Amino acid sequence: MSGVRTGSLRRRVTLTALAVLGVVLVAAGIAVHAVFTAQAERGLNALLAGRVQLAKQLARQNVTPANLVRRVDAPGLRVSLTLPSGERLGEEPVRGSDLRQVRATLTGSPRIAGARLVVSADTALLSGATRTLRQVLLGAGAAALLLTALGLVFGMRLALGPLDAMTGLARAIAGGRRGGRLRPSRADTELGRAASAFDDMLDALEGAERAARASEERTRRFVADAAHELRTPIAGVRAAAEAVLSLGPDADPVQRDRLQVLLVRESERAGRLVEDLLELARLDAGLVPARDPVDLAAVAGAQVERLALVAPSVTVEVLGDPHVWVRGDADRLTQVLGNLVDNACRAMDGHGTLTVTATRTASHARLTVADTGPGVAPRDRERVFDRLVRLDAARSDRTGGAGLGLPIARGIARAHGGELRCLSREDGRGGAVFELTLP
Question: Superkingdom of the source (predicted)?
């Protein structure tokens, strides 16, 4: 594909304007020349016809031939009258390409009846006037083109000033300067719309640049935090493995079993962290969940049954509709609800009341998990969904683990076209509410 032709815009506009003006001047000159020639021809013919008509009228009035010739004569004309007797009055008629002649036979008194009148006009004057007009038109056209060219040379600098401003700003942006804008005085003109679009583009580019930098910073911080989180279980695995290897053959079997259990636990902890990190990577890459019919109420009931086994001291209340159907991935939605239930139990230290409510409207399904723990401060209700964020004990650590459960849960909810939010309870019982909304 060939590149954009980038010839001088000033030269293009100037040459185009001069070409259009030249065509207009040529057309106008041709029209003026044609009209002038036609009017001159018409005027000359009218003059000759008028002289002949005057001669006929004078002949009927019995005017003497000499007086008739004198009265018919006019500047630029040559009048010749040949009487029936053969006598010739006036100038001798001549022939030539520059003469226009009109002949007539007069009637009147016996002396003039039958006389032949010849009125001639020299068209050289007409040709000279036409040539003069042509020269005037050519000179005026050349002068108009020259003046227009000079006007365009200076006028284009002023007219293209906004484009020069755009070019200068673009080069400044490319050189690293940020924040500059054209800010057009009017946005309803061609240049105003172009300048507004240019400013909008700069806003979008700088916004994308800031977002990219923020994303890069978050990625660096996430990698650093992940490395820090992995260091602890890996260090535990290493310490437990070294301790097991250092035991002799006569070591206490109970101590050996304890170290082996610790080794397995630290390995599982590191494995869960790696799995969470991989899950976040899949969400960032654009997770496409299944779209199968899923009953949220049934998923909630299964989690409640599991909770009765692992946390029998927690009182569970199940409210809402008996069936709430959505389209989604049953395993992923179970993962979300399991994370919310486990976090609530940790917030209540295994004692309290957990309320799970599943409801539906015409367009959405809603599932809430409410606990009676210390709750989440308003300033932390969005922060708990950040990656590797664990609130301190004074503010009730709702995330547990490495701080990846809630970010994963929100990512799964959004992959389904829904949302996961942290709210506060409004029934006076304290605690926090996590609300899952799905289409």
Answer: Bacteria
